Amino acid sequence: EKGTYPHFMLKEIDEQPFAMRKIIQEYQDDNDEIKLEEDVRQAMANSDRVYIIAAGTSYHAGLIGKEFLEKIAQVPTEVHIASEFSYNMPLLSEKPLFVFISQSGETADLRSVLVETNRLGHPALTMTNVPGSTLSRESDYTLHLHAGPEIAVASTKAYTAQMAVLAILAVDTARAKGLTLDFDPLKELGIVGNAMEALCDQKEEFDQIARDYLSTTRNCFFIGRGLDYFVGLEGALKLKEISYIQAEGFAGGELKHGTIALIEDGTPVIALATQEHVDGSIRSNVQEVVARGANACIISPEHLTREGDAFSIPTVHPLLAPLVSVLPMQLISYYAALHRDCDVDKPRNLAKSVTVE
Ligand code: F6R
After folding, report:
1. Residues lining ligand 1, CB < 6 A?
2. Is the ipTM of this complex over 0.95?
């Protein structure tokens, strides 16, 4: 039920702080440590490489998940688009573990990969919001996203839940390997939940950004470096699927290799600048597009915000910044779609669960 909300999408964006708290609660033991099933732990310990398989928004969560697994747990990880993987399988390592990320647990492109990896006898773990789903039933292990039912076609709370559970898996694996961590993951996810709540309380600002930057535009670009690049890909997908504005996300450094040719007077460029080590370089990319007439909108965390930035988001642990910086992307897309009279919850040509290949 939508309750007082005009759309499921807005309700589900608002539910993200609760979903974070639910995930922390579900994955926490009595000593405030991470609780994971022993067989999932074993599966991680027994594998030499993780292969993440996903589609759409879940694929974007997978890109972030690779960073978590490699940076936190030192587990080599590859991320693959399910529909590509099924006919273009890379050389596999000796002990692969397949991780399927799927909100619905029913996506046919993923299922066809799972059927093949099961046939080859490789272990599979599904991360899903629907534990009784096909992918969950047909794989060896399941991690529940605990985001609650997601009705709007555009995925929002499942995406942040996917990233949170991937972070938990990475931290647990790091601990099992005896690696020392410089942060308490569950505490940091709590801080993320609070940051999400603060953003949900500032909706008018995103409504205004959508008016200022997107009300009449034909296209829009999202740029970032590192983790911000992946959030930009998700921002572009959200915007195009619900507002039908042509949008593209790309790595800041790639601009000069072609895409900058598309920048004209007034072209909106949404730049994410949450990562301190690339702050200077992403800001110089912004200057390059502004010099060509772009209407740049910089989103940065409080500790890196400079005069002229469009919006300042609360600072969280830098690896977890995507869980927070995607909320402005979701809300800006929502308002852009609303201003253009689009059917926010049921965009044309799309289905919530894609059960055909
Ligand atoms: C975008 C969106 C889709 C899904 C994709 C995978 O907002 O919802 O891109 O992410 O179809 O679906 P699941 O996660 O159910 O496998």
Report:
1. 55-58, 102-104, 107, 110, 154-155, 237, 241, 353-354
2. yes
